[in-house]
């Protein structure tokens, strides 16, 4: 069982990362290297979170073995027995043999650091580059990252020169490695506290507000108004970019050296624009370099970059608008069904996607009504209370985890109580719930952050390559300090507990932070206390109010701008609802007409077709009989019949020939 637990978690975490990446990324349209790099970054970070509780339980067992081996003891199967006191150190079910965890952590940690500091920034620039060849994209990525990499090399070089010149410093390679790890963890801890302070308040509050149907509906109306503005802006931007592409496509002809670049740009355009540009293009006209001024390859690369960005943004807003409409319609249905006497959930519109038969069998309209109208609000309230309790415990422990006598951190108290009885299952569950909650607070904030249109994780396969890679960078930089912070909260880090005990395998690869005492005894201990200030600021929505004052509309119940946007969104949803109803009514009428008259029309049409076939076959046989001896093939017969029809003169219906008197018409004839 020792290796089975590690293997199962490795496989489970891989499929979890793959599922999340499939939800946000697009495996069909995005580059494979982007998918692989992002999947590797997410997988390594999630793996650290899931494997760390196993490291804690294994470390507690190893400490017990060391304590037992220091006095006369005897071994008995899966546990070690201390002779005088008969104390038993049971081996945990998930025990990992010695020597595996240090190698595992070393590979995982340094791979994630290579991704976040070297590979992923380079791939970000490569993905956003508008170059038309691999060499051109690599060149652009190197130029954009020259300042980024040069800054780190300059700082590191200056530090090495200072250490070499100063005789008071006698640093070895292990100490230099520890300093580099400490610098990376310090930057990550700075960002970690900011994201954690937001998540500890926003996650319980969002679940509490999720029980309020009126609140969710008003917020959906607000989102609809904002999204419609963004959607119109994206369409206008796409039209402008497509107009520039059309001009470039008309100026650069088929035999121009840069025509291949133009064709590459046209392939990235939507299908309707490609057809429109293909009709207006005249490829038989040669280009004249002396008469026209043609764009350079650099300007075409810039245009290519703009096309990729505008098409991605336009597609994302279109998909998000349809998803938001479905959410608004569903919330309106919930509000209508709350007062239903039949206690059966009735949808205004049928689902456009085919539902699973198993779900339809169990999730009946009656079950749906009880869940949506009665159980779900209470479930969200209870969940919000539980999450708020966890948040309070985290805030208290962050402010008191440096105290060892007495132990004030609640997480450390729980672990030490379980350590006395060697209840490894309880230890692993407590560690997993603690680090999992911390990870949810931090990672969910990363998924919610939106930096204008440059970084935005959109679900339903609408996230661009730049945002996916940037999220991988953030995860790799946040996870190591998150794990160190967790070990400090549980007093499993010797730097915090001030005990001369065996450290965890994860802490051992980080090195001793005593090399930088001002970071180990100062920044790592007192900076996490700022989470209290950030939680208070998030609770009173100070960040939202500041963004609202700067002109970025945020959902606030006491704002006139918010109420205006809610009314606007409500009208937009009402308009789309009427449009959807008219479409469904038209489809129902066509379906009823087809069911009522479809069989009759089909039979009439089949009889008419059968009669026409008989008449055409009869005329063909009569026409072929007298001409069969004069013709050599069926093609000659067809040509003769066509010529006879062409020789027939049409009747002349002139005004002079038209006469109402039948006698005159007869005499004329």
UniProtKB/TrEMBL annotation:
Biased composition (Polar residues): 618-634
Protein name: LMBD2 protein
Predominant location: membrane
The gene coding this protein: Lmbrd2
Composition-biased stretches (Basic and acidic residues): 582-617, 635-644
Keywords from the UniProt entry: Coiled coil, Membrane, Transmembrane, Transmembrane helix
Family the UniProt entry places it in: Belongs to the LIMR family.
Transmembrane segments: 6-21, 33-52, 103-126, 146-165, 177-201, 378-396, 425-446, 466-489, 523-542
Sections of the chain in a coiled coil: 224-251
Subcellular location, record wording: Membrane
Membrane topology value: Multi-pass membrane protein
GO biological process: adrenergic receptor signaling pathway
């Amino acid at each position: 069982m020792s290796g089975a637990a590690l293997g199962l978690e490795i496989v489970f975490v891989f499929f979890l990362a793959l599922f999340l990446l499939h939800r946000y990324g697009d495996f069909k349209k995005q580059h494979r290297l982007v998918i692989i790099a992002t999947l590797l970054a997410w997988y390594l970070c999630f793996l650290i979170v899931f494997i760390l509780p196993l490291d804690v339980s294994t470390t507690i067992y190893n400490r017990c073995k060391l304590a037992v081996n220091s006095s006369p003891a005897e071994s008995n199967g899966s546990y070690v027995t201390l002779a005088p006191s008969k104390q038993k150190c049971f081996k945990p079910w998930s025990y990992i043999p010695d020597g595996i965890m240090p190698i595992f952590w070393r590979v995982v940690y340094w791979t994630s650091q290579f991704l976040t500091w070297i590979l992923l920034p380079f791939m970000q620039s490569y993905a956003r580059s508008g170059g038309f060849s691999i060499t051109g994209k690599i060149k652009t990525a190197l130029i954009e990252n020259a300042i980024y990499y040069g800054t780190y090399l300059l700082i590191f070089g200056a530090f090495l020169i200072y250490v070499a010149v100063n005789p008071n410093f006698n640093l070895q390679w292990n100490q230099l490695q520890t300093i580099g790890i400490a610098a990376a963890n310090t930057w990550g801890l700075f960002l970690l506290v900011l994201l954690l302070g937001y998540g500890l308040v926003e996650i319980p509050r969002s679940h509490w507000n999720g029980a309020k149907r009126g609140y969710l509906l008003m917020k959906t109306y607000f989102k609809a108004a904002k999204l419609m503005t963004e959607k119109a802006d994206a369409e206008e931007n796409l039209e402008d970019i497509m107009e520039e592409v059309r001009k470039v496509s008309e100026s650069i002809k088929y035999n121009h050296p840069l025509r291949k670049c133009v064709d590459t740009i046209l392939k990235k355009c939507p299908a309707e624009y490609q057809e429109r540009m293909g009709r207006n293009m005249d490829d038989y006209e040669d280009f004249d370099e002396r008469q026209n001024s043609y764009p350079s390859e650099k300007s075409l690369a810039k245009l290519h970059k703009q096309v990729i960005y505008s098409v991605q943004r336009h597609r994302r807003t279109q998909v998000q608008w349809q998803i938001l409409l479905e959410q608004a319609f569903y919330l309106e249905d919930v509000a209508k069904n709350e007062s239903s006497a039949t206690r059966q959930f009735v949808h205004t519109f049928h689902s456009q996607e085919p539902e699973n038969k198993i779900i339809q069998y169990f999730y009946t309209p009656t079950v749906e009504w009880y869940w949506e109208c009665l159980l779900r609000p209470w479930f969200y309230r209870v969940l919000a209370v539980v999450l708020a309790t966890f948040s309070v415990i985290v805030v208290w422990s962050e402010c008191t985890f440096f105290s060892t006598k007495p132990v004030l951190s609640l997480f450390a108290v729980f672990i030490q109580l379980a350590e006395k009885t060697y209840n490894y299952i309880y230890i692993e569950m407590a560690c997993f719930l603690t680090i999992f909650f911390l990870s949810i607070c931090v990672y969910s904030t990363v998924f919610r952050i939106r930096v204008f249109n440059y970084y935005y994780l959109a679900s339903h396969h609408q996230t661009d390559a730049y945002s996916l890679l940037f999220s991988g960078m953030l995860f790799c930089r946040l996870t190591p300090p998150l794990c160190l912070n967790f070990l400090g909260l549980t007093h499993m880090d010797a730097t915090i507990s001030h005990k001369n005990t065996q450290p965890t395998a994860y802490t051992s690869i980080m090195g001793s932070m005593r090399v930088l005492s001002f970071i180990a005894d100062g920044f790592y201990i007192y900076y996490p206390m700022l989470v209290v200030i950030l939680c208070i600021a998030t609770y009173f929505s100070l960040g939202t109010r500041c963004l609202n004052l700067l002109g970025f509309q945020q959902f606030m119940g006491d704002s006139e701008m918010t109420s205006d946007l809610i009314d606007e969104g409500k009208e937009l949803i009402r308009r789309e609802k009427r449009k959807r109803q008219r479409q469904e009514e038209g489809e129902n009428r066509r379906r009823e007409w087809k069911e009522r008259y479809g069989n009759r029309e089909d039979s009439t049409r089949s009889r008419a077709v059968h009669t026409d076939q008989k008449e055409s076959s009869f005329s063909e046989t009569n026409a072929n009989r007298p001409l069969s001896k004069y013709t050599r093939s069926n093609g000659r017969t067809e040509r003769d019949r066509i010529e006879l029809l062409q020789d027939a003169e049409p009747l002349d219906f002139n005004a002079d020939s038209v006469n109402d008197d039948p006698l005159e018409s007869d005499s004329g004839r």
